[in-house]
Amino acid sequence: MKKSGMAGLLKQAQKLQDDMARIQAELETLTVEASSGGGVVTARATGKQEIIEIKMDPDVVDPKDTEMLEDLVVAAVNQALKKSRELADEKMSQAAGGLMGGLPGGFKLPGF
């Protein structure tokens, strides 16, 4: 590889690294929301897969049936985390210019 080609490659790698750092910081400020039970339980998560809020309709809180409430919370949280991962994947793929989408079967870059 020519010296000028290597410099270009290093420049592209530095830009990709800068873009990834910027997007990781942005993901901390972005949120997604998901609900279960027709909206009676709602969970919000950051783009970094951290649950920041869970809300429930007071009518769904039945001390005699905590199992149903637990199931609704788990479903809402799992859906919020799934949406958060999808958001992160989308943002990272945009920064990588399709590079990450071309990685083989489920391979992920560390930390992303």
Q: Please give the CATH architecture.
A: 2-Layer Sandwich
What's the average pLDDT? 84
CATH level-1 class: Alpha Beta
| Helix share, percent | 40-55%
CATH superfamily: Nucleoid-associated protein YbaB-like domain
Order of helices and strands: HEEEH
Q: CATH topology, what is it called? A: Ybab, Chain: A
Tally of extended strands?
Answer: 3
Beta-strand fraction estimate: 15-25%
Summarize the structure in words:
The chain has 112 residues and is an alpha+beta fold. It has a single domain, classed as Ybab, Chain: A (2-Layer Sandwich), CATH 3.30.1310.10. Helix content is 51%, strand content 16%. A three-stranded antiparallel β-sheet has the order 1-2-3. The protein is rod-shaped, with a radius of gyration of 20 Å. The two termini are 29 Å apart.
Short description:
By secondary structure, the protein is an alpha+beta fold.
Task: Draw up the topology in text.
Blueprint: H1 3-29, E1 31-36, E2 41-46, E3 51-56, H2 66-95
Helix pairs in contact: 1-2
